[in-house]
Amino acid sequence: MKKSFGLLMAASLLALTACEPTGSGTSSSSSSSESSDSAVSDSVEASESASSEESSSSVAMVDFPHNDAGALIAGSGSGYADRSNWAPGICFPIAGKAYANSQVYRPGGSNGGGGGQCDASNYSYPWQDNFCETRSWNNVVCTSGQGHQGQDIRPETCKANLHWAQATEDGTITQVGSYTVALTGDSSPHRIYRYLHLQSASLKVAVGDHVVRGQKIGLVSNNMGDTPTTIHLHFEIRVAQAETMADGTLLAANSFVPPYTALVDAYQRKLAGPDCPIVE
């Protein structure tokens, strides 16, 4: 490994270990028709049973019901309508089907009204962005300077400690906290991916481990330190060095960027075929 990248990873580790956020919970949602959900379900099943010999670099895509980037649930925050793909080509971070939506403003969340977190509406399309959703966490990209720092994603079913989180790309584990794992990508610009709320006992990685794209990281859970959250993966993308966004926003190293577009792209490739088979 090049010396410059080793220094970059060391800097990432020092910065990340001091910033493990707290909180996340799950409002009404618009769900897709049965036919749409069934069609996507068939696509997922077909992709997972297809030959793993297909190239992971395939550009084949299968669309699925999803709202636009920045289109948050009404009253949940300002959002950030940036459609830039900050991590093109990544492996989707959860094996199997998944539903990206709010954990706070949907059933089972602290501002979600009636129903529990296992409500069927939480496990249906369309997807919904929740980056910059109202939170007290620092996030320079959000209008107020505060907001949700990543995207919440429910696994295929409302069961903790069953569905695997996977490595988004080849890289090195640069943080393992009480409920957080960070992966710094090998390839420039060395994006930093953070996985929150995994089951601690199931983690298959430690700081300094090198992982490959699709490798098992840990099981999606409701771990949030001393108190449980809903069953979901909070997924972040951070920049490893100073960058400037399309709207002129200046980002310091370790700043958050919107992950939604990259996740939509990764899921479309996942539905089209075995984009990143699970690696033990």
Description:
The protein is an alpha+beta fold and 280 residues long. The protein has a single domain, classed as Glucose Permease (Domain IIA). Helices cover 15% and strands 16% of the residues. The chain has three helices and twelve strands, in the order H-H-E-E-E-E-E-E-E-E-E-E-E-E-H. The strands form three sheets. Strands 1, 2, 4, 5, 6, 7, 9 and 12 form an eight-stranded antiparallel beta sheet that branches. The two termini are 23 Å apart.
Question: Which helices and strands appear, and what pairs or packs with what?
Answer:
Elements: H1 3-16, H2 34-49, E1 98-100, E2 151-155, E3 164-166, E4 171-176, E5 180-185, E6 192-196, E7 210-211, E8 216-219, E9 233-238, E10 243-244, E11 250-251, E12 256-257, H3 260-272
Q: How many domains make up the coordinates? A: 1
CATH architecture: Distorted Sandwich
Number of strands: 12
CATH superfamily: Glucose Permease (Domain IIA)
Largest sheet: 8 strands, antiparallel
Summary tags:
single chain; alpha+beta; Glucose Permease (Domain IIA); eight-stranded antiparallel β-sheet; 15% helix; disordered N terminus
Entry summary:
A hairpin with a 3-residue loop joins strand 4 and strand 5. This protein has a single domain, classed as Glucose Permease (Domain IIA), CATH 2.70.70.10. Mean pLDDT is about 85; it is low at about 1-35 and about 40-60.
